[in-house]
Amino acid sequence: MEGKDLEAEIHPLKNEEGQEQKAPVGPGKEAAESLHSRLSRCRAAAFFISLFLCLLVVFVVSFIIPCPERPASQRAWSVNFSGTATLSFLATEDIDNDKIQDVLFIYTSTNDSDLSNHSCADQGFSSPCSIMAALSGANGSVLWAKPVAQDKVLADCGLLSPKSCSTCILTSLSGSMQAIKSCTGNSLWSQLSSLGSKASVLSPLLLLPDMDADGVLDLLMLSQNGQVHSSVISGRTGFQIGHQLSLGVEGVGRPLLHLTSMGAYYVLLPCRTSRSLCSWSLKEIHKQVTGREDTVFKGDALWEDTFNATVSRLLLHNSGGIHQVVRVLGARTEELLVVAAEALALLSDQEQEPRWILGSTRVLRTPIIGNYKPQAKAVAVENGTNDKDRQILLFGLDSGAILWRQAFPSLPGAPESASLLTADSHSVFFFWGLPPSTSTNQTVQAPQDAPHSLYMFHPTVPGFLLELLNVSAQVVAFRVVVLEPSRHATILLLTGPSPVSLVKYKVRDLIQHGRLVSLQKSKPDSELAIRDRFSRLRYLNTKA
Ligand SMILES: *[C@@H]1O[C@H](CO)[C@@H](O)[C@H](O)[C@H]1NC(C)=O
Ligand SMILES: *[C@@H]1O[C@H](CO)[C@@H](O)[C@H](O)[C@H]1NC(C)=O
Ligand SMILES: *[C@@H]1O[C@H](CO)[C@@H](O)[C@H](O)[C@H]1NC(C)=O
Ligand SMILES: *[C@@H]1O[C@H](CO)[C@@H](O)[C@H](O)[C@H]1NC(C)=O
Ligand SMILES: *[C@@H]1O[C@H](CO)[C@@H](O)[C@H](O)[C@H]1NC(C)=O
Ligand SMILES: *[C@@H]1O[C@H](CO)[C@@H](O)[C@H](O)[C@H]1NC(C)=O
Ligand SMILES: *[C@@H]1O[C@H](CO)[C@@H](O)[C@H](O)[C@H]1NC(C)=O
Ligand SMILES: *[C@@H]1O[C@H](CO)[C@@H](O)[C@H](O)[C@H]1NC(C)=O
C-alpha cells in the first residue's frame, strides 16, 4: 500500500490512468475514489501548512528575533585615577557576564571623588585607603569600586569558589583577612588578625583541601614573627581552625603547596635557617593543628627522600642558599623548579634523582615556563649578576639544555617576563628590557629616564624580537591574557605609582606598529613576512 502511494506521488497521471484501467468495475469504486481525493487534498494541505510554518520560523529567526549582540570591545583603552598604585595585583575574570574578562586591581586613593561614590570614610577608613576596583575589559568603564582596607593588602582572587563570581581574599600585612565577592565587591566575611603586632604575612596564601570537613576549601596563612608560624583558616568563615603552629624556621621566599604523585601534600618554603628549602607534610600540620589524625592526608616517603637528596646536592655547591621554588605542570605530574643562588634544579617526584642540575646560573627574577616546541617545554630564566648584564636563557625542561640565549639588558624594577600558549602548540614569550645588543661586548647605555620596552619572542623565528611598546612610567603590574573568546592576546599594564593608569592594548595592534629587532648581523629577508608571522598567531587561554 505504501509503495503504491509513493508510486502515486511520483507518477500521479500515469498511476491514475493505470488505476482506471486496472481498477475493478464495481459499486465500491466511487467511494474509493472520493476517499483517495480527500486523502490527497489532506496531504496537500498538510504539505502547505508545514511549508508555511517552516517559512514562518525562518522569517522569525532571521528578521524578528535580533541576533545575540556580540560584545563590542574597544581595541585599546586607558583609565587614569588620582591615587597611587604600588600593589602588583591584576586579576581578570568575567564579572558582568559579557563573555569578556574584566580587570580587578587595587590602588590607594588620595582623592576618592573620581571613582566610586563610596569614600574611605563611608567604610570607616581614614583617607587615604586601599580601593579595589573592577573595570570592564571591553571599554574600561568602572563596574564597581570600593574602599576595602585602610592599609596595603595582599590579594588573591579565584580561590575558593566557582569561576563566575569568585571569591577574592584580601589579607593585610598584619594578618586581618576578608573575603569579597568579585562580581559585586560585597564582603562575605572578615576577621581581625590573630597574629602578634610584629608579625607579617608571607604571600601568597595557600589553598588547602578541606581541613575542617565543612565542604569548603580552606587556607593556610604563613606569617613571620622571628620564626614562621602557620595558621589554618576556614574558607567558609575566616575563623582560624585549631591553633597556630610554630614551624621553627625563618622564611625568605614565597611558600608553595606541592602535591606529589602519591597524593601527599607538602608545604615548601625557602628558609634562611640552614639556607635550605624547608618542607612540611600537610598531614603533620593537620595533626598538630587539629589534634586528630585524618586518613585523607598522606605522607610520601619516596618523595621526601628525593627531596632531601636534591636539596643537599644543591646546597653542596651553593653557599648562597635556595631562593625560590616554582611549580611546573609536567606531562605526568607536578614538577618543581628549585632556584638556588648559583644553580637551578628540576625535581620530579617519580624519579629518585633530580632530572637535572645546572650550575653557574644567577636567576634575577622568577623563571617562567612555556612551550619551545610542541610537547617540549622550556624554562625562560633571566640570568646575570645584575640587570645590566642580564641574559635571557631558554632551557629545555626535559634536558636542561640551552635552547636559546640572548644578552638582553634591563632596568632594575622591571616587571617579570610572561608567556602565552599559541594555537600552534608553541608559546610566545614576553620580555621587558632595553634594546638587546647583538654583540655582547657592547656597553649598555641605561640613562634613568630611558623608556622600558616590551619585546615579544616566538621560538619559530628565533633570530628576531619584536618591540611592542615603549613605556616611560614605572610598570607596577603587567599581564598578557586572552580577554575574549577571540584567541587574540591582550596586554594589561598598571603603571604608577602616581597617578594610577591602567591600559589595555591588543597585541595584534601593537605588532603592526612594533619595531622588528634582528638578533643576527644580517638583515632579515623580508620584514613583512616575519611581522606577518607574529600577526597571524592565535592564543590559547591556558597556562603552560
Ligand atoms: C591617561 O594618562 C595618559 C598619560 O599619563 C594619557 O596618555 C591617557 O590618554 C590618559 N587616559 C585617559 C582616559 O585620560
Ligand atoms: C579631587 O579631585 C577633584 C576633581 O578631580 C578636585 O577638584 C579636587 O581638588 C581633588 N582633591 C584633592 C585633595 O586632590
Ligand atoms: C552611587 O550611589 C548610588 C546610590 O547611592 C548607586 O545607585 C550607584 O550605583 C552608585 N554608583 C557607583 C558607581 O557606585
Ligand atoms: C562599556 O561596556 C559596558 C558593557 O560591558 C556597557 O554597559 C557600558 O555602557 C560601556 N560604557 C561605555 C562608556 O561605552
Ligand atoms: C629529610 O630531611 C629532614 C631534615 O633534614 C628530616 O627530618 C627527614 O627525616 C628527612 N626525610 C627522609 C625521608 O630522609
Ligand atoms: C649566568 O650569569 C652569570 C653572571 O653573569 C655567568 O657567569 C654565567 O655564565 C651565566 N650562566 C650561563 C648558563 O650562561
Ligand atoms: C669591545 O669593543 C671595544 C670598542 O667598542 C673594543 O675596543 C674592545 O676591544 C672590544 N672588546 C672585545 C672583547 O671585543
Ligand atoms: C621605542 O623607542 C625607540 C627609540 O625612541 C623607537 O626607535 C622605537 O620605534 C619605539 N618603539 C615603539 C614600539 O614605539
UniProtKB/TrEMBL annotation:
Sorted UniProt keywords: Membrane, Transmembrane, Transmembrane helix
GO cellular component: cell surface; membrane
Residue stretches of biased makeup (Basic and acidic residues): 1-20
Transmembrane segments: 44-65
Compartment annotation: Membrane
Principal localisation: membrane
Record-linked Pfam families: Beta-prop_FAM234A_B (PF23727)
Name of the featured protein: Protein FAM234A
Organism: Erinaceus europaeus
Organism lineage: Eukaryota, Metazoa, Chordata, Craniata, Vertebrata
